[in-house]
Amino acid sequence: MTSTPTQDVENELLASLVNGVLTLTINRVEMSNAIPYYVRDRLIEHFTNAHSDLNIRAIVLTGAGDRHFCTGADLRVRPTPPTLPEGAPDFIVGSAVEMMRSGFQRLMESMQDCQKPIIAAMNGTAAGGGAMLALAADLVVASDTARFVDVFASRGLLPDGGFAYLLPQIVGMHRAKEIVMLGETISAPEALALGIINRVVPGDELDSYVREMAERLASKPTKVLGWAKQLLHSSVENGRSVVLEQEGLFVELNIATADSQERTAAMREKRDPTFRGF
Q1: What are phi and psi of 247, to 5 degrees?
Q2: DSSP of 27-77, one letter per residue?
Q3: From CA 129, how far away is CA 167, in angstroms rounded?
Q4: To which H or E segment does residue 229 belong?
Q5: How far is 158 from 7, CA to CA, in rounded Å?
Q6: Where are the domains of the chain?
Q7: Which CATH superfamily includes the segment(s) 9-218?
Q8: What is the largest CA-CA distance in the chain?
Q9: CA-only gyration radius of the chain, Å
Q10: Which Pfam families would you find in this protein's record (predicted)?
Q11: What is the DSSP track for 176-203?
C-alpha cells in the first residue's frame, strides 16, 4: 500500500454545470471506477458545497464508460500516514473508527444531507461502496446492463459506509439480509423490482434520459424539493410528532421564498410559474 505518485483529481472526477445541473463523472475506467481517498473527498466537497450553492439546482452522479458505475474504494491508493511519536504502535485504537467516519460514511451523509436532488446514473456495475452511492442517491436511473453487487460478505468484510443503514429502508429487512448474506449479483430489472432503481433504460439512452430528468428537477422550486427530502428522511427515523412539527416549520419557511411568491403570482395571472430555486 503506497501513496499515489500523482493525484489528478480534476481529471479523475469530472465536474460540469449546465442549466443548473451539476454532473459529476467518476473517470477512472482503467480502475473500474473505484475511487481513491482524494476523489472520495472531492465528492464530499461537491455535495457539501452544492447544498447552499444557488446556481446548482440538481446533481447527476455517474461513471465514465459503459461497464462500471463505481466499484467502491480504491484501496491500492493510500494517503501518507501521519508521523507517530516514538514508542507508539503502528495501529492506534480508534483510528479505524475515525477512518470510517471521515471516509465513506461522511460521503453518504453529504449526499443524504444535500438539499439538492441527486440522480445516480448507473451506467454499469455498482459494487461495494459504489452500491452505497446508488442507495444514498435520491433517484437512480440504470442502463439495462447495469448490475448491483454487495461484495462485502463474500470478501469477509462488514457492510460499511452506511450500506446497512440505507438498504433495509429501501428493500425491507428480510430482502436486505438476503442481499447482504448471499451477495448475489442483482440485475437492473431485479433492482427495479426491489425498489433500488427507479428507471431502467437502454444504455444508449441513459445520458439523454437522465439529462431530461435532471433538468426537470432543476426547473422546480429547489427549496421545496430539499425540505421534502429532509421530511422523508426524517420520517424513517423520527416519530409522528417530530415529523409533523418539521412539516409545519417547512411550510412556514416556504411561504417566505421567492418561488412561493412566484407560484401565487402565476396562479393569479393564469400562467405557468418560473421557479428560480430560492
Answers
A1: -60, -45
A2: --GGGTT-B-HHHHHHHHHHHHHHTT-TT--EEEEEESSSSEEE--B-TTB
A3: 12
A4: helix 222-237
A5: 29
A6: 9-218, 222-269
A7: 2-enoyl-CoA Hydratase; Chain A, domain 1 (3.90.226.10)
A8: 76
A9: 20
A10: ECH_1
A11: HHHHHHH---EEHHHHHHHTS-SEEE-G
What cell numbers appear for 143 in the block?
442502463
Which grid cell is 173? 429487512
